[in-house]
Amino acid sequence: MNDKFRLYGGVNNFTNEKGDAGSTAYPYSAVGRYFYAGAKVRFGGQ
């Protein structure tokens, strides 16, 4: 939004693909599709 405040978000495994249950390879996981969001705030003079 500006230099001191930023928002972000996204989706992992958007199509909800089912990978191998024992696999740790990207983009598949046992969790399936998930969403995330966050904010970064910078305090101080610079």
Task: Explain what this protein looks like in three dimensions.
The protein is mainly beta. The protein has one domain. The protein is built from no helices and 2 strands. A two-stranded antiparallel sheet has the order 1-2. The mean pLDDT is 78.
Please outline the helices and strands.
Blueprint: E1 5-12, E2 34-41
Antiparallel strand pairs: 1-2
Tally the helices: what do you get? 0
Please summarize the sheet with the most strands: 2 strands, antiparallel
Distance between the termini: 17 Å
> How many structural domains are formed by the residues?
1
Percent of sequence in beta strands? 25-35%
| Widest β-sheet, arrangement of strands | 1-2
Structural class: mainly beta
According to DSSP, the number of beta strands is 2
Low-confidence stretches: none
The geometry reads as elongated
Helix proportion: under 10%
Question: What's the SSE pattern?
Answer: EE
Average pLDDT reading:
78
Based on CA atoms alone, the radius of gyration comes out at 16 Å
